[in-house]
């Protein structure tokens, strides 16, 4: 696995391509462009292709928040999400890190728990019948 780096404008096409492969559309392109431009995106590349990325901000009650982690289907179960989380912990602007995932996303729940996050609550009504579980870690 290649190392985690901060994305730059040259990486946007690869990030958007990967995002589109996973969610089936390019609806987050402008958001990704903004986040990358602000230096709030970490990536892992393999053979010049973006294989995984993490987006973050500090808009969650002034705490660090991992808003999105995407790993390509071919790179899953290889430690990419853990590598991104670990790298983010080293640069996080706050000691408190939060993130979330749907109740139906048991794989991501396992990733958070493996990386020392604990459940901190949930939010109903974002996705019908699929509550969002909030995770927390103090670094």
From TrEMBL:
Residues 2-139 form the N-acetyltransferase domain. It comes from the Bacteria. Signal peptide: none annotated. GO terms for molecular function: acyltransferase activity, transferring groups other than amino-acyl groups. Gene3D superfamilies: 3.40.630.30. CDD domains: NAT_SF. Pfam families: Acetyltransf_1. InterPro entries: Acyl_CoA_acyltransferase (IPR016181), GNAT_dom (IPR000182). This is N-acetyltransferase domain-containing protein. It comes from Viridibacillus arenosi FSL R5-213. The lineage of its organism: Bacteria, Bacillati, Bacillota, Bacilli, Bacillales.
């Amino acid at each position: 696995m290649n190392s985690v780096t901060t994305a730059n404008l040259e990486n946007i096409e690869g990030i958007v391509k990967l995002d589109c492969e996973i969610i089936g559309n390019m609806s987050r392109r402008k958001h990704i462009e903004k986040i990358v431009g602000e230096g709030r995106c970490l990536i892992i590349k393999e053979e010049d292709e973006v294989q995984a990325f993490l987006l973050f901000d500090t808009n969650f009650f002034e705490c660090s928040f991992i808003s999105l982690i995407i790993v390509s289907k071919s790179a899953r179960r290889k430690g990419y999400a853990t590598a991104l989380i670990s790298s983010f912990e080293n640069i996080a602007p706050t000691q408190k890190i939060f993130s979330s995932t749907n109740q139906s996303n048991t794989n991501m729940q396992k990733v958070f728990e493996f990386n020392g996050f604990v459940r901190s609550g949930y939010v109903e009504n974002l996705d019908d019948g699929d509550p969002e579980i909030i995770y927390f870690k103090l670094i």
